[in-house]
Amino acid sequence: MRICVTGISGRLGRRVAQMLRRKHEVVGIDQRASPGLPANIVHHQVDIRRRPAEDILRNGKFDAVVHLGTIHNFRIPSEKLYARNVIGTETLLRYVSKYKIKKLVLLSSGDVYGPMPTNSHFISEDAPLMASQRFPEVRTLVAVDRAVQSFFWRHVDIETVILRPAHIVGPHVRNAPSNYFRLRIVPKIMGFDPIVQLIAEDDLLRYIEASIEPGVRGVFNLASTDPVPLSRILKALGKPTLPVPYPLFRGFLERAWKYRLTSFPAPELDHIRFNAVLDTARARDELKTLPERSLYEILEPFRAETIEE
Amino acid sequence: MDWTTVAGKVLGFANRASEQIGEIISSPELEARLDRIPTRLSDYGVDAFGFDPQYVKRVIGLGAWVYRHYHRCESFGIENIPDGRCLLVSNHSGQLPMDGAMIAMSMFLEREPPRFCRSAIERFVPETPFVSTFMARVGQFLGTPENAKRLLEAEESLLVFPEGVRGLNKVWSERYRLQQFGTGFMRLAIEANAPIVPVAVIGAEEQSPSIFASRTLGKLFGVPALPITPTLVPFPAPTRYRIYFGKPMVFSGDPNDEDDVIRHKVDTLRSAMQSMIDEGLKAREHVFW
After folding, report:
1. pLDDT tens digit string along A61-104?
2. What value, to the nearest 5°, has the Cα angle with vertex B121 and ends A234 and A269?
3. Distance between CA atoms of B226 and B216, rounded to whole angstroms?
4. What is the pLDDT of residue B245?
5. Which residues of B133-168 are buried (b: 16+ CB within 10 A; e: fewer)?
6. Which chain B residue's Cα is nearest to A232?
7. Substitution target from B132, B141, B152 for chain A, most A beta carbons within 10 A
8. Is beta strand A25-29 parallel, antiparallel or unpaired with respect to A2-6?
9. In terms of DSSP H, where are the helices of B165-207?
10. What is the value of ipTM here, to two decimals?
11. CA nearest A188 in B: which residue?
């Protein structure tokens, strides 16, 4: 198959391209430079919203588009986030339908549901996307997910897949959950021990590959592990923890964020405060792959002893 | 009475007290029972909703002490609780939800084989530090219909109080009169095809009588009404509890039927429960004995 990958220059984008090129022809679109990609991967350094991108999709004869090109960095001004995420995705959707590409895979996130104190314990794919209620900065990511959902309903002839993974963790991943496990002393919120789920980066790659298969369509929650209390994870990491009362923790993070002393936005504290358990039954039944990483394998690179060695 | 008898009595009391304290801290009997309850644990020792039997081992001694020695509970008809999924529906009273804990302890201590029952917590609990974790580890769940349905489908037994806070906070003059019932639990039971076990708790009503419930003061604390009790802050008096488990009732029909139809089924159950309460009150000779 010929596959177009947006956001190929990111850490995950590169790994997705490496994996797909074994069986498929891969063409990347990213406005960032992407040195060191293998020779058989073509990379076009263009902005998806600009003219050259349309030519690539018109003439590319693609069988599938894998859309990884959304940005999650909340330091970026909101107008820019909106343009890159929402306008960028809508442009891409227009090309996919105009040039009759059979398959579209969006990497969204389990975070779009939002960790809410009033959530039912298990969140299924039909649950409302509440994330921007408590954390307005994620609204563009929710909007992207919604835009692709409505695309799914409007274009029954195109196989649209939305992947909503739990917290992605891996030795090369630089997102909030992975960075949280990297801390030498891990702070937690006093009196809270939420049930969480993780997904190994490897398992996510497997799921992306499985979702490209013809016949797969719809929204899928993804996770590697059974739901597990955060305290068990911290115990397995073998690092000292520091319980902090929530108001103090939040106040500290808000100030630290303002003065650019931390990469953790304060509203993300809800992830270590409230349960957010994805119901992954649909992925188990409909995708032709199963997660292979256990919790202990996922945590191995972050354990205190591993780091000392 | 000479000093030796007095000393003997004091020693005897201290001995009994220390035995009881020992039982609260650790009891092989309770731990053995706990190992026999049906659970669905993951590799990490908790179930998907966060219920943790190892955590329960640390606190169940206190629950058993309150059940046996403080409220001196008696249970009747415990054999009416089926295996597999079921919905226990009980009256609610006493300002503090001791009745829920005592029903759960009764199922754990008196039934063969022992069972654990899970009840719904209020919506403010997940935001409350320590309480949220405690409630999850002892198997309680946030009361959304979807959570309840999932637990029933996992063959768990659930305890619900259809009166809700209306029952818990009712004043002395309303004692042992069932308040208005919600209908959600009935729709749930029909949809999940779960038998309903009616439960009547006698004795909780007198543990902390409320003469008057202040709505104004309640607003101040963010609760529907603040009860004014003899102890000012509600504290349960050691009344004797009698817990009656009725025969399971099976309701059928369309779970999404109109309110009137569901309400009719709820009223059937409610009047059955009211007559259980009335009979229990008639049989009782004293509040404390």
Report:
1. 999 999 998 988 888 998 999 999 999 999 999 999 999 999 99
2. 35
3. 8
4. 97
5. bbbbbbbbbbbbebbbbbbbeeebbbbbbbbbbbbb
6. B44
7. B132
8. parallel
9. 165-168, 184-192
10. 0.85
11. B129
What is the C-alpha to C-alpha distance for residues A254 and A262, in angstroms, rounded to an integer?
A: 9
Rounded to whole angstroms, how far apart are CA atoms A42 and A25? 9
> Model confidence over A126-155: pLDDT tens digits?
999 999 888 888 999 999 999 999 999 999
**pLDDT tens string B80-130:** 999 999 999 999 988 888 899 999 999 999 998 999 999 988 888 888 899
Longest dimension (CA), chain B: 74
Cβ-proximal residues to B119 (8 Å cutoff; 6+ apart), any chain: B100, B104, B140, B141, B158, B159, B160, B161
Beta-carbon contacts of B10 under 8 Å, excluding residues fewer than 6 positions away, are: none
Helices B98-109, B53-65: inter-axial angle, 10-degree rounding: 100
pTM, to two decimals? 0.89
Q: How many CB pairs under 8 A join A and B?
A: 67
Percent of residues, chain B, with pLDDT higher than 70: 98
C-alpha distance from A267 to closest chain B C-alpha (Å): 14
